[in-house]
Amino acid sequence: MNSYATQEAVSEQEETVARKGHFYGVYLLCSQSLDPRYRGKCYVGFTVNPKRRIRQHNLGCDFGGARKTSRKGPWQMVMIVHGFPNNIVALQFEWAWQQPSLSTRLKMYPELRRKLPRENYFDYNFRILSKMLGVGPWHRLPLTVRWLETDYERAFDVPLPSQMEIVSGKVSISASQRKRADDAEAPPPVAWAPECHLCIQQIEQPERSRLGCTNPTCRLTCHMLCLANYLLGDEPGHYIPIGGECPLCETRLSWAALLQRKRLLSGVPEELQDQEDDLSDEIDVDSEVEYVPD
Ligand SMILES: [Zn+2]
Ligand SMILES: [Zn+2]
Q1: Which of 78, 134, 198, 207 gives a 20 to 30 Å CA spacing to 260?
Q2: Closest alpha carbon to 129 in 79, 68, 165, 179
């Protein structure tokens, strides 16, 4: 299933990944379901541990997999893009790949808005990715495009920026990178808990300390404190932010409006707050990151 040839090649890749610091990846899943309703559908997600993440998707949402992928698999992780400097940059990449028609960087390309009539889901997602790698801010990053399934492997129509590389084979996350991800062999967590997009830690009491974005299509989830600190980045020396840009969708946020929305939602059950919006049948929208225990 994977195409690395020798042990040597694997350790070389391992080294490459390690040199880039912590692992932040944005992956593409394709459904191998026998049910024609789901077969070939794709899903874009973010992870710090691809091996565990694919297991969670295939176990379903009770085990940390996204609701969008639950019972529509088995899923194959066909490719992963990594080498992002931090989780925010990776999450922004994930968000744009999921929703090219809403992304501020991609919405000027009308050809990305829809899947073409005869195009399959994989081809459509590959077309979006090809465009993304050539436009700012991503075209300046030292990204690695890694094929995980040789059956899907294909050439890009336009050459990638020179600092990017295309490789195939499994991802090996070195011990030094596993500071945040737990051991790859550990069983998946039984109960799913939301995870903060900013600090990549579990949100213990979501009803009290979780904040989202005021843009209803944005899936930002974070600790109130983490978002406050993020927004205060522009206003050092203060304790309460006035506002700033959402780290994922770049919508202008006002701190007062965020708190007001939080108060309004606090009486609404969690499931309703999280209702999946059917923005597009082509790409599943879900920015849930996995639960990573300390
Ligand atoms: Zn946090
Ligand atoms: Zn947002």
Answers
A1: 198
A2: 79
CA of 211 to the centre of ligand 1 (A): 10
Measured in Å, residue 1 CA sits from the centre of ligand 2 at 37
Measured CA to CA, the distance from residue 11 to residue 180 in angstroms comes to: 21
Separation of CA 254 and ligand 1 centre (Å): 19
What is the rounded CA–CA span in Å between residue 111 and residue 106? 10
Amino acid sitting at position 168:
S
CA dihedral 268, 189, 65, 153 (to 10 degrees): 150
Instruction: Quick: pLDDT tens for 68-117.
Output: 788 888 999 999 999 998 888 998 899 899 989 888 889 899 999 999 99
Q: Residues lining ligand 2 (ion), CB within 5 A?
A: 213, 215, 218, 220, 246, 248-249, 251
List the domain boundaries for the chain.
Answer: 7-175
